[in-house]
Amino acid sequence: MVGEPFRWQVAEIEPIKPIITEHQGHTTLCECGCCTSATLPPEALKSNFGPRLAAMIAYLAAVLHVSRRGTREFCETLLNVNIALGSVQNLLEDTSGALKPINKELKEALPEEPVINADETGWRDRWLWIFVASSFIYFQVAKSRSSKALIDVFGNVYKGILCVDRWGAYTKYHKGVFQICWAHLKRDFLGILKVGQATEANDAMLFAQTMEKLRKRLMAIWYRFKAGEISRADLIKKTRPIRNAMKRCLKQYMHSEERCVLTLANKLMKRFDDLFTFIFYEGVEPTNNLAERGIRPAVQWRKICFGNRSDNGAVLTSRLLTVTRTCWLQKRNPLEFLVEAISAYRSVKPAPSLI
């Protein structure tokens, strides 16, 4: 033998054989003439399908975006489990009940978080909101895109820092500190530049080119800070000239004859301090990418299921997304957590926590 042997591995899956547990209850006749029958275990009475199968069905829906009919075919073809379409829906509703206390715990913890990234997207005739905290993600399907949805989640006042785009519901609701998303601003600058190039408008081109150039310099310093090359104090000091240059640029174009330039310059000047919160506060990012990345799987799901028709369906959606995306954020196995939650629910035990 010369040297180490080479290795070659082949993965395979044996045909899946479901485990069917049959409970048999005997009946006895007492001397007094009364019949006494055995009782089933409480968890067995909850469903004809076990917690792991229920969790797999929830995982297929929330993470892999498989339809109800597709789930039934998966169970019958791959798992060798015959299941009716109605049973698939019943198991999902059962899972929704199991996730209720977990969802409630996260919602109650949300207002106490010091920094929240938020975003929203259409969901049939509703709106799906996402709120990303430091260690969990909370989803809410609401009938409105207004500030009423924020009051329902945070209460009348949120005391932390809200990282968002410039949608009016956020600015109407929150009277505290903001971080305005610089990724959105980049798109705004490039959009105005295209308008300027198409119409040969000097104001539009000069404004967009100046602000985009300053934005790049700002982000370059931020990335040095993130890499540990400079301290927070250095970040504040080195970005001061850029912040001052941005203020001069915005003031210069607040009365521009170009409508798009005038509008953006005035809006940014009004919320100027909110552009640079990330420079002064720990845990704040300059963009809202955390929320946008978190909501992307939900958008993909919407393109397949087209949203929810009922309130119960909307609640199921928000709970499934909250738990599975939080597991993703925490690098936990969402399937195993769903199994644990459903098992606890059926055994009438305390639900597992994601806090």
Polypeptide structure, described:
With 355 residues, the protein is an alpha/beta fold. Among the domains are: 112-177 and 288-322, Nucleotidyltransferase, domain 5, CATH 3.30.420.10; 182-280. The protein contains 14 helices and seven strands. It has helices at residues 42-46, 51-62, 68-77, 85-109, 147-154, 168-173, 182-199, 202-226, 232-252, 259-270, 277-280, 289-305, 311-329, 334-346; strands spanning 27-29, 35-37, 115-123, 126-132, 137-142, 161-164, 178-180. The chain has a five-stranded mixed β-sheet. Helix 2 (51-62) packs across helix 14 and helix 13 (311-329) crosses helix 14 (334-346). The model has no long low-confidence stretch (mean pLDDT 92).
CATH-scheme architecture of the domain at 112-177 and 288-322: 2-Layer Sandwich
The top-level CATH class of the domain at 112-177 and 288-322 is: Alpha Beta
Distance between the termini: 55 Å
Low-confidence stretches: none
In N-to-C order, the SSE pattern is: EEHHHHEEEHEHEHHHHHHHH
* DSSP strand tally: 7
Name the structural class. alpha/beta
Mean pLDDT: 92
Overall morphology? elongated
Compute the number of helices.
14
CATH homology-level superfamily of the domain at 112-177 and 288-322: Ribonuclease H-like superfamily/Ribonuclease H
| Radius of gyration, CA atoms, in whole angstroms | 27 Å
Give the DSSP E fraction (strand runs of 2 or more residues).
Answer: 5-15%
Largest sheet: 5 strands, mixed
What is the helix content?
Answer: 40-55%
Looking at the structure, the CATH topology of the domain at 112-177 and 288-322 is Nucleotidyltransferase, domain 5
Strand order of the largest sheet: 5-4-3-6-7
